[in-house]
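Tutorial, part two.
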Amino acid sequence: QALNHQIPAAALKTSADDAYHEQVTHLLRDQLNLFSEVSGCWIIDKTGDVRYGYGVEFPKEKVNFSDRPYFALHKAEKSPQMYISPVITGRLLKKELIVFTRALRTADGEFNGVAIIAIALENFQKQFSAIDVGKKGSIAIRRSDNLLLVVRWPHIATLVNTRLVDNNPITRNILAGKREFNSTQI
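Running the prediction step on this input gives:
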């Protein structure tokens, strides 16, 4: 949300040249450095083209995100909201990640593009793999809004983005507002 107020509107015009590249890249770097879990930040313009980025080598060829669900959502929305993706394979990072996105709007509310922050799930896999969960144990992160599996150790690819069934004890704990628990508490 802060980026919306910090990025000059002219930096997202299709006619903008490299005059804003250094300024916007520094803003993204500063945002990225606030959170060690963040793997990359990008700004896409109102056509869906990546204009600025930090955290991965900036692509030489044009990369467009206008086909991503969050782009259409942000373009159509009237009041800015954050969108959190399911687990996807990143076009720039080329690995499993989740993205947090928010519309960028001009002062008069016109859609001006999207800010994207990506979190690569391999960072969590590395942390989880260092934990001894025993032969039958596992550790996982699920979304509390839709109960989808984000990341799990040991990793089972077919379980990513699957929802818990309603009668599962873990479902009941999450819906009751519990954010941390183990199998002995179920």
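DSSP finds five helices and eight strands in the chain. In part three we will examine how such features are distributed along the chain.
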